[in-house]
Design brief:
This protein has a domain of 113 residues: Cytochrome c-like domain (Cytochrome Bc1 Complex, Chain D, domain 2, Orthogonal Bundle), CATH 1.10.760. It has 180 residues and is mostly helical. Helix 4 crosses helix 8 and helix 6 crosses helix 8. The structure holds heme C (HEC). The site of heme C (HEC) has 28 residues, from helix 5 and helix 6.
């Protein structure tokens, strides 16, 4: 093999390399992969909240005590329209699909006599505090896995505060609102 042959082989080799590089540049320009702003994949908000503390409201949301100081009872009453499909709010009214909600603030969870609560609610324990109502209404299923309440939840923190503010008025002796 003389030098001329060798040059031809080297030339062909270099040409192929150049072509491959060129292809890489061109395909890179055409199929530019979308860069993720944050690594990972998006989770539904409820799952994120759950990961942050058992269905707790996302950390960026102001605590319910603070939101209640800006809440609006009238708006809250209007926002309970979807609840009325399943709940009675008037004093002395009985259960519908769900238990009656008159006096629910500070009532022991799952305590309306004769109402057949799910194990999920019965096993929760304690009273319906403002904070617990806030968590439950954010995402009932995340708060009480296996609950019979098929309501998807109210994602808007301000609306939840309005609803809870209204619930708190449904009492002969309304519980005081938290100072903050
Ligand atoms: C599709 C029907 C349905 C809708 C809509 C619904 N709920 Fe319920 N709710 C239920 C059922 C059923 C239960 C009983 C849950 C269980 O036993 O797991 C319940 C339970 C509750 C409890 C617990 C009461 C207790 O005595 O322990 C509260 C508080 C409550 N709901 C509030 C609301 C509010 C506020 C809304 C509207 C924003 C609402 N629910 C919308 C069906 C519903």
């Amino acid at each position: 093999m003389d030098t001329f042959e060798l040059n031809k082989i080297a030339g062909a080799f270099l040409g192929t390399l150049l072509f491959a590089m060129w292809l890489n540049v061109i395909s890179g320009a055409i199929f530019r992969p979308a860069k993720l702003v944050k690594p990972g994949y998006p989770l539904p908000a409820a799952q994120v909240a759950e990961a942050a503390g058992g269905g707790a409201a996302a950390p960026s949301v102001a605590p319910i005590g603070q939101r209640l100081t800006e809440a609006d009872v009238k708006k809250g009453e209007a926002d309970t329209k979807p609840c009325q499909a399943c709940h009675n709010f008037e004093k002395g009214a009985g259960a519908k699909i769900g238990p009656p909600l008159y006096g629910v603030v500070d009532r022991p969870k799952g305590s309306v006599a004769g109402y057949d609560y799910s194990e999920a609610i019965k096993s929760k324990g304690g009273e319906w505090t403002y904070a617990d109502l806030d968590q439950f209404l954010t995402n009932p299923k995340a708060y009480a896995q296996g609950t019979k309440m098929t309501f998807a939840g109210e994602p808007d923190p301000a609306k939840r505060a309005d609803i809870i503010d209204y619930l708190h008025t449904l009492s002969d002796k309304p519980e005081p609102l938290p100072a903050k």
